[in-house]
Amino acid sequence: MGSRVRFSQCLNKCLQDVSTLKEILIEIHAELCYAECLMIRAMLTFVQDENLISFVKGGLKIRECYKVYKECNKMLKYRTFKEEKIHFESGVRMGVGGFNLMISLLPGKVLKLLEFVGFSGDKKVGLSELQKGTEVMSSLRGPLCSVVLIGYHTVVCFVLGLADGDIDLADELLQNCLKRFPKGALFLFFAGRIAEVKGNIDKAICKFEESIECQQEWRQFHHLCFWELMWCYCFKSDWLMAMKYAEKLCKESRWSKATYTYLKACFLLMCEDRSQDTQDHLLYLFGEVPKLKQRIAGKSIPLEKFAVHKAKRFQEEGNRLLLPALEMVYLLNGFNILSKNEPLLEPFLLTTERTINEVLENRDAHPCFIDDYSLALLLKGVCLKHRSQYFQARQCFTEIIVNEKSIKKDTFLVPYAVVELAILSLAEENWNEVKILLEKAKNKYKGYLLESRLHFRIHAVRLSLSNQQNSNNSNGGEDVEDIESPLGSPHPGTSDQEGSWNSWTSGQESLDAGLAETNHTTHF
Fold first, then answer.
1. Cβ(424)–Cβ(393) below 8 Å
2. I need a surface site. Which of 43, 52, 187, 295 has the fewest CB within 10 A?
3. Is residue 121 predicted with pLDDT exceeding 80?
4. What is the DSSP letter of 320?
């Protein structure tokens, strides 16, 4: 009888242990889901506005996210898993990789403000962890790791960087996803985006349309496709079709009606139709832009501020605005895509050259002649740069800087021209000149339109310069002075993985000493 009691007690204990283990596993996965929600919340904070305050708020919000991921990583390292491990591991890799990648993209002045909470991001670590996550495609978050990597290489690198994403890797990852989800709207969208950044605009249009047709439940996702279709037709100089999709966005999307209305007016202004009805409609559209401007938490969206500025210029200068569509293509880094397709770039260059001649012929008729002339020069210089005509491009950018004191309203043209000169010097491997020009663009000019957008570009040039210097040194080149990191440590992407991760965690360890019971290296 006694032996039966002991067996019953042992059996009950085993059942309780199994139940407890299941509860622990559920709690562990719930903790990971919580971290993912915090990450998404931080990302939304970053993208809702481009000003410094949003970046700082986003950085503070991900502090808790960071702590949760650190605990999840400890669980991954010290707990025993069975079949659930691949799901948990892919989630941790996605979070750690996405965290590093997101932080590494922030401009230097934002990173300095985040230093006090121990944040730094290593691009190399981020890409490596995400790549490892994609290798477990059967896991729950394996495809999501692929989505993050594809989005980084095809969207982020083109919008915020120097179009230096690994498109071949993105294409390879996408093909693996399409094999499993051939009608997935998200993957069809990325198929269109890859075709677009390769310069295959017609194929991109087909893929975006296919993405729209394959699902009708998530209408907001259609707006992403409309946005890309609008720019695809803009790249083809099909202004009426571009205007059509801008109008669709005006009617259906609530993100920024002022921006959509301004873009619609820009495309209409590029059309050859100069009838009275068209002029009246242009007056109406540009007049609506200031009325549609919105404020979020007391702050204006930078792109809307720019649109309002340009709409007022149109009215002040007798219903006239110079090359507004090409200007928007430049500000949103569209010329990096046009450069992949010479027949598409050629009409833009011819348009800028013709406009320069017209501006010079009527120089006495317009009070902001230098503003118009400088804008046309900037656009021409960018076209020449992408045709590898560096000497002629440098002349265009230099002339803008020479005319700096004569520019009355579009003061943003000068710092943008300085950064373009830095990019030219980077292509010519004149690294000292790159550093001088970047410092000038960053420190000399303040308070101009779309300043934070240019700071992203400056940060991208710094990263590219740092990579070139390290590559030169590793190949036996002469020593070149490294760029000073915003955190006073090796610049993101230049240190080894384990060391950079320790650097990333050390600041937070000092603030949350009680969080970790033992010292450990967060390294898979």
1. yes
2. 295
3. no
4. -
Cα 56–chain centre separation: 17
Q: How far apart are CA 373 and CA 436, in angstroms?
A: 26
The gap from C-alpha 49 to its chain's centroid, in whole angstroms, comes to 13
Neighbours of 474 (CB within 10 A): 8
- pLDDT, tens digit, 9 for 90 and up, residues 298-327: 678 899 999 999 999 999 988 899 999 999
CA distance 492 to 227: 32
Query: What percent of the chain is modeled with pLDDT above 70?
Result: 78
Closest by CA to 375, choosing from 301, 441, 303, 325, is: 325
Quickly list H helices, 214-256.
219-235, 239-252
Cα–Cα distance list, 264 to 251, 268, 288, 372, 481 (Å): 12, 6, 11, 21, 47
For residue 295, CA distances in Å to 45, 231, 299, 302 come to: 15, 26, 5, 10
The residue ranking higher by pLDDT, 28 or 178, is: 178
Alpha-helix residue ranges (DSSP H) falling in 79-200: 85-104, 108-114, 123-134, 142-151, 157-159, 167-180, 185-197
DSSP 8-class letter at 483: P
Structure tokens at 128: 């490596």
Predicted confidence (pLDDT) at residue 521 exceeds the cutoff of 50: no
Q: Element (H or E) spanning 462, and its range? A: helix 451-474
Residue 328 near residue 266, CB atoms below 8 Å: yes
In this structure, of 120-129, 267-276, 402-411, the range with the lowest mean pLDDT score is 120-129
Tokens of 477: 């080149």
Among 51-55, 132-136, 292-296, 375-379, the range scoring the smallest mean pLDDT is 51-55
> How far is C-alpha 502 from the chain's CA centre?
26
Residue 521 identity:
T
For the chain, the domains span 14-139, 335-467
Q: Which two tokens stand for residue 204?
A: 């991109």
- Side-chain-side CA neighbours of 176 within 13 Å: the count stands at 17
* 158 close to 192: Cβ distance less than 8 angstroms: no
Which tens digit of pLDDT belongs to each residue from 366-408? 888 999 999 999 999 999 999 999 999 999 999 999 999 999 9
Lowest mean pLDDT among 112-121, 146-155, 235-244: 112-121
Task: Identify the architecture of domain 335-467 in CATH.
Answer: Alpha Horseshoe (1.25)
What does the pLDDT read at residue 513? Answer: 38
- Does the reported pTM lie above 0.85? no
C-alpha–C-alpha distance, residues 154 and 151, integer Å? 5
CB 400 within 8 A of CB 374: yes
Q: Whose structure tokens read 């970047």?
A: 438
Q: How many CA atoms lie within 13 A of 56 on its CB side?
A: 9
Residue 443, exposed/middle/buried by CB under 10 A (0-12, 13-18, 19+)? exposed
